[in-house]
Amino acid sequence: MKRFNFNLQKVLQLRKYNEEDRKIQLGQAIGILSEIENNINIVASNRRLAANERFSGTADILSWELYINRLDQQTESLLKDAAKAELVVEERRNAYLEAARELKAMEKLKEKREKEHRKEMFAAETAELDLQANNKRYFSQQQKELQLQQQY
Predict the structure, then answer these.
(1) How far apart are CA 145 and CA 142, in angstroms?
(2) N or C, which end of the chain has less CB nearby within 10 Å?
(3) Cβ-based neighbour number of residue 5 at 10 Å
(4) Does the global pTM surpass 0.90?
(5) CATH value of 9-151 in 2.40.37.10, 1.10.150.20, 3.40.630.30, 1.10.287.1700
(6) Are 97 and 13 in contact (CB under 8 A)?
């Protein structure tokens, strides 16, 4: 039986590599977004702690106010970074999904061609066996006729 050979195997391998690469890129983007969100939570926690502090003098109040303003600015900056990171994550998610669709389509094509190949091989094998059986029957019948002719 002839072995199946998928003539688009290199394209399939390239699509597998592309899909895996897109998955890694998506994971990296999600990691960056998670880090930014973690930093936002840390800054928010620091601001809550600072807001609950009590002060004894005006110098403390001034430095506290500057610290709160810096934390607010840091939070705004991190929120902008998070918005940008979410766009990147969405873009990479779409790229990954597209690569996964392309890979799945190529894998389905390969499966379809393998099924066709098996069907063709089965049909050829069946035809060969039928031919052998018919030949055997024919030669058997010929032998019987020869034996009958030799008897008379």
Answers:
(1) 5
(2) C
(3) 8
(4) no
(5) 1.10.287.1700
(6) no
